[in-house]
Amino acid sequence: MSDPTAVLLVDDEEEFVSTLSERLEIRGFDSKTATSGEQALSLFENHDFDAVVLDVKMPGMDGLEIMDHIKEKHPETPVILLTGYGSTKEGMEGMHKGAFDYLMKPLDIDELISKIREAIGGPR
Hints:
CATH architecture: 3-Layer(aba) Sandwich
Strand order of the largest sheet: 2-1-3-4-5
Mean pLDDT: 93
Number of strands: 5
Distance between the termini: 9 Å
Order of helices and strands: EHEHEHEHEH
């Protein structure tokens, strides 16, 4: 059996990101969480992730900036952006900058899992 898919979840809403992490863990994923860009980039220095789920709107370093840093050092790691409030503009901009795809909040967990599996090239 292969190792569980390692996913980094980045969102400044602590309750959201911890609940999402629990829901992924229940489904067999290995997830780590970060609530800031700095924390996310720090985790990336010590861990290998199969995929990143990243909120676009965050205080300080926003999701697109974080993605730029991740892509600089780990260009092969797929990034799935989360956008809210009916905002597709940031999602589209993110895809032009190298994001695998984007999803709207509120998030459907099954849609997210399907998107992660698609991003990493099939079931794990």
